[in-house]
Amino acid sequence: MAKSKTPAKRARRAEARRLRNKAYKSRIKTAEKKYLAALAENNVEQAKANLLQVISLLDKSVNKGILHKNTVARKKSKLVQKFNQLAK
């Protein structure tokens, strides 16, 4: 444990950020699962709505510094690729 006030505060703030990031990543994963479930059911309209939601969450995660921009670009690309295969 930290010996003085400043490192102790930094540790508290780091823990709070870690928990916030973990919750946000969980929201993204849940949205991705809903999207993939809609794809599995061949429900194009629901899949499109879920895709837009996932993309929105991913873009916000970049702005908040939760995920790296290249990671998000890769995930978005894969998700759109799967949607395009279904739409054909």
TrEMBL record:
The keyword RNA-binding applies. Keywords: Ribonucleoprotein, Ribosomal protein, RNA-binding, rRNA-binding. Transmembrane segments: none annotated. Signal peptide: none annotated. The keyword tRNA processing does not apply. GO terms for molecular function: small ribosomal subunit rRNA binding; structural constituent of ribosome. GO terms for biological process: translation. InterPro entries: Ribosomal_bS20, Ribosomal_bS20_sf. GO terms for cellular component: cytosol; small ribosomal subunit. Belongs to the bacterial ribosomal protein bS20 family. Binds directly to 16S ribosomal RNA. This is Small ribosomal subunit protein bS20. It comes from Thermosyntropha lipolytica DSM 11003.
